[in-house]
Write a structure and sequence with these properties.
By secondary structure, the chain is mainly α. The protein has 10 helices and no strands. The longest helix has 12 residues, at 2-13.
Length: 153
């Protein structure tokens, strides 16, 4: 939160509004995106507050990952729902080609995968290594998740 306030104070000095700072779409290498940091801290109220103040749910970090990638990887369905309500891109691929569904599948987060599938995630996209969400779930021995993905349309 202190870093976010620092960014806002500095931005004000150079003539940017708080909304412009919060809506930044891509963080330079080494910089943090406040909504992503709130997700990584498992802080749903902070994520909700940032989104309500205009934070871009599709802002990416230096690895081209969005807040939804991190929430899915951490199995944070409540935070994912907040991001999806704010129009987070559900099939966005990071620099390695991973989608949020792939991150959920890789880490065995059944609730996260169900939420993403219900919101329209495409299960057959491939990452840079040619892996799908089903392949990642299978590789990591997440049997129930593999069955869910196999049965979904």
């Amino acid at each position: 939160m202190m870093r976010q306030l620092t960014h806002i104070c500095l931005a004000t000095l150079v003539g940017l509004t708080t909304t412009q700072v919060l809506a930044e779409t891509t963080a330079p290498l080494g910089e943090q995106v406040p909504v992503i940091e709130a997700v990584r801290s498992l802080d749903a109220p902070a994520v909700d507050g940032l989104l309500k103040k205009g934070a871009n749910p599709n802002a990416t970090d230096a690895l081209s990952r969005t807040a939804l990638h991190y929430a899915a990887a951490l199995g944070q369905a409540k935070i994912m729902a907040l991001l999806l309500e704010s129009n987070a891109k559900i099939n966005e691929q990071d620099e390695e080609g991973f989608t949020p569904l792939m991150r959920a599948a890789q880490n065995g987060h059944l609730d996260a995968a169900e939420l993403l599938l219900g919101a329209g995630a495409v299960k057959d996209l491939t990452n840079a290594r040619g892996e799908t969400a089903i392949a990642l779930a299978r590789q990591n021995r997440h049997t129930t998740l593999t069955e869910l993905l196999s049965a979904s349309k």
